[in-house]
């Protein structure tokens, strides 16, 4: 128990030190001028606007990817213990509920058309 407390203390102190370093470095203001605030395109003058609208469908697909990437992280520990008897019935029910919820999300996205690559 004492080793855990020491490691937690060291982690918290490291976070505070990094926070303070960032604050101190941030107090030295950066030079803001016409050159610093203009977009840079290989030394040439910018062509067009730097605020180009992006596809909303691409954004939604990226969000879906992040959600299902996180669910893989949530499922990985369950897959590691599912073969043994160390997982009780509430663990199986929780895993089943998570899988039903994720499958329902996939069905919803499929019906909505967010998983279509064309059009």
TrEMBL record:
Task: Indicate how the chain sits in the lipid bilayer.
Answer: Multi-pass membrane protein
Annotated Gene Ontology cellular components are: mitochondrial membrane; NADH dehydrogenase complex
EC numbers: 7.1.1.2
The source's superkingdom equals Eukaryota
Class of this enzyme: translocase
Q: Which UniProt keywords apply?
A: Electron transport, Membrane, Mitochondrion, NAD, Respiratory chain, Translocase, Transmembrane, Transmembrane helix, Transport, Ubiquinone
Catalysed reaction(s) here are: a ubiquinone + NADH + 5 H(+)(in) = a ubiquinol + NAD(+) + 4 H(+)(out)
Q: Where are the transmembrane segments?
A: 6-31, 58-85, 91-110
From the Swiss-Prot or TrEMBL record, what is one GO molecular function term? NADH dehydrogenase (ubiquinone) activity
Coiled-coil blocks: none
Q: What are the subcellular locations of this protein?
A: Membrane; Mitochondrion membrane
This molecule's function is given as: Core subunit of the mitochondrial membrane respiratory chain NADH dehydrogenase (Complex I) which catalyzes electron transfer from NADH through the respiratory chain, using ubiquinone as an electron acceptor. Essential for the catalytic activity of complex I.
Q: Which family does it belong to?
A: Belongs to the complex I subunit 3 family.
Q: PANTHER family recorded for this chain?
A: NADH-UBIQUINONE OXIDOREDUCTASE CHAIN 3
Q: What is this protein called?
A: NADH-ubiquinone oxidoreductase chain 3
**Organism whose genome encodes this protein:** Quadrula quadrula
- Gene responsible for this protein: ND3
